[in-house]
Model the fold of this input.
Amino acid sequence: MAAFAPLHQFWGEIPAFLFAFMTVTLLKPSALAILSLSFGEYTILPILNGLGTCENWKKNSKDYEFGHKLLAIVCALFVATINIYSAKLSARVQIVFTVAKLIACALVIGIGLYNLSIGEFGSLPNSFDMSENTSYSSVALAFYSGLWSYDGWNNLNYLTEELIDPNRNLPLAIFIGIPLVTILYTFMNISYFTVLSKVELMTKEPVGIRLGDRMLGTLSFIIPVLVALSVYGTANGSQYTAGRISYVAARDGHLVDVLSYVHIKRLTPSVAILLNVVSLLGFSIPYLWFRSLYFDTSNQML
Done:
């Protein structure tokens, strides 16, 4: 495992153990939780809009949030099931949903280019006006949000044992992937600014849905559907690598041996994958139970 082996060789076993432990118990489960929540957010709104009950559900914030979180849990369980069932199927799913992600990016960028071509610049001329908030914390938060967008670049490092000709294909994937993501995300943000104000971009509602409602009319459901597929693909990739980290760390003696077990027929690290999704459920289910007991429909504590 490329991100693990050099750490082990250079820093020694204790930092390697800490890295593996934090990744397995906190980083990967929380990443899957965030991605699953995004999937739930982009999935529930088109469904409710199609049923004509979106506004009623939003008024009852407890029911809306429960449905949102429930879809997130379903997403996480489905991702885990596919990864346990077949590594090849998971890889094919990843390809399909990556295509959906690129289509979503192209659609958003196309909207922005259209606006620019007709002279509609929106809030773009003032998009870098920092006069309102120049605190160190806001700058740090902006950097963190940007780093989160590019976090997936190192996922391929965890799969070097399964790559064909990793000495060639791993650097090639990184050198192509990072510039491509940089270009796509830069143009997507420009597109958002041509349609939405800075205040709208900072609201809780997903910006993709706002952009679709503003520009696509009756076809506005296309963007949340494509984004939901994109987020699912990202969650699938995160789950795929999470199982490999647990597997290799356990194989090298840094975690319990049971995490290094693979399915006897499907040859997938099923125990490690289950650990990741069980950790997520351990965070999510008590949270849902707590909110159902102590928060009323107006999102206030009882």
